[in-house]
Amino acid sequence: MPSYEDRKTALLNTMRSEKRPLRYADVRRIMGGDAAIRRLEGERIVERISAGVFAEPGRDTTWDSVAVISCLHPEGVVCLETAAIFHGLTDANPDVVHMAFPRSKRVPVHPDINVEGYRWSETYLVHGVERVDIGSMHVAMTTRERTVVDFLRRMERTGMVEEGLKVMKAYFETGGSEKDLIKAAREIGAEAHVRAVSMGAMAMRGI
Q1: What does the pLDDT read at residue 204?
Q2: Res. 42: pLDDT tops 80
Q3: Rounded mean pLDDT of 96-120?
Q4: Of the candidates 170, 158, 159, which has an alpha carbon nearest to the alpha carbon of residue 201?
Q5: Of 70, 71, 94, 192, which has the fewest beta carbons less than 10 angstroms from its beta carbon?
Q6: What angle do CA 71, 28, 40 make, to 5 degrees?
Q7: Are 34 and 71 members of one domain?
Q8: 27 and 74, same domain (yes or no)
Q9: Are residues 71 and 28 both part of a single domain?
Q10: What gap in Å lies between CA 166 and CA 145, rounded to an integer?
Q11: Separation of alpha carbons 87 and 158, rounded Å
């Protein structure tokens, strides 16, 4: 049977190589029981960052909420406001984690974290999605271009015009390419709408 030190090394190697916190079930499996987990916490090797999720102390805690939801629901894709903050497209700092999930899944409810969930088809969960390092977690997130496209799509559906135009303006002001934006829109069948909005906005000279 592996020793406590061997199990601890295996746990830390898993966290560091996979760049993610671990669920309680995974920590318990690696460590062999709750007594070893309590010892880890007592020695400050790991800490419980939310219900059922453990991470190493000393990390950047800015994105802990995103890390927790991504850890518990790895099928999710970080999107909209949360992705826009990460990509530097907004200076907003919402307390809500915006994340999309497969249509076959329910939007999760977490006791400590507010989740604004969306249910997307496979096309939307695959195209314009990349893996990024965010805090202590390697997560799936919409790209800069896809994030802008999603804001413009939401603008059309909900009338949230100001938010969509602000994000698009920030995209172009930080070196964004109209060609890349249209390409991202084309991949999910939103080219016509995004082309019309971007051309109209750029004609206003303010964007």
Answers
A1: 53
A2: yes
A3: 93
A4: 170
A5: 192
A6: 95
A7: no
A8: no
A9: no
A10: 14
A11: 23
Last residue of a domain, one of 116, 142, 168: 142
Give Cα 14 distance to the centre of its chain: 20
Q: Which domain holds residue 99?
A: 64-142
For the chain, what is the domain count? 3
Instruction: Give, in order, the Cα–Cα distances in Å from 7 to each of 4, 27, 36, 144.
Output: 5, 10, 9, 39
The confidence score (pLDDT) of residue 4 equals 95
**pTM, full prediction:** 0.85
- Select from 21, 38, 55 the last residue of a domain: 55
Grade residue 202 by pLDDT with cuts at 50, 70 and 90: low
Helix, strand or coil, per DSSP, at residue 95: coil
pLDDT of residue 147: 98
Phi/psi at 79 (nearest 5 deg)? -150, 180
Same domain, 132 and 77: yes
Q: Would you give the DSSP letter of residue 54?
A: E
Nearest-angstrom CA–CA distance, 118 and 125: 11
Residues 69 and 138 in one domain: yes
Q: What is the pLDDT of residue 190?
A: 92
75 and 124 housed in the same domain: yes
